[in-house]
């Protein structure tokens, strides 16, 4: 709250204009694709609950949020889900992003991916 209230109105308006420009560019993409698939985090899941093993670079908030922040910023509907085990045998995550008001499509795709994962297969990307 304190950080938010420390931003002056002019700076806030500049950030809002940048957000709207990003959202407009994103809206130009969606007529050609239904969903965007990308990583959700640049690191592996923790090996067990309550234990986080990350190296110094992964601890940076900027690094951790680099895949989710743009979509939070745009207000786009997103769905994050586990994809498959990586080289450390820990789950890697992906996120699906769609245009506004296409949440049902996101949920259908997420369900399909989870069904394939239970069967030990992942749909082709």
Largest sheet: 3 strands, antiparallel
Total number of helical segments?
A: 5
Strand order of the largest sheet: 1-3-2
* Cα-atom radius of gyration: 17 Å
In the predicted model, the low-confidence regions spanning at least 5 consecutive residues are: 54-58
Elements, N to C (H/E): HHEHHEEH
Percent of residues in helical segments?
40-55%
Question: What is the average of the pLDDT values?
Answer: 80
Return the domain count.
1
Task: Please state roughly what percent of the residues sit in beta strands, choosing from under 5%, 5-15%, 15-25%, 25-35%, 35-45% or over 45%.
Answer: 15-25%
The computed structural class is alpha+beta
What this model shows, in words?
The protein contains 5 helices and 3 strands. It is α+β, with helices and mostly antiparallel strands. It has one domain (2-118). A hairpin with a 5-residue loop joins strand 2 (78-85) and strand 3 (91-98). The longest helix has 21 residues, at 9-29.
What is the fold's blueprint, element by element?
Layout: H1 2-5, H2 9-29, E1 35-39, H3 61-65, H4 69-74, E2 78-85, E3 91-98, H5 103-118
Antiparallel strand pairs: 1-3, 2-3
What's this model, at a glance?
42% of the residues lie in helices and 17% in strands. The chain contains 5 helices and 3 strands.
Task: Offer a few descriptive terms.
single chain; 125 residues; alpha+beta; globular
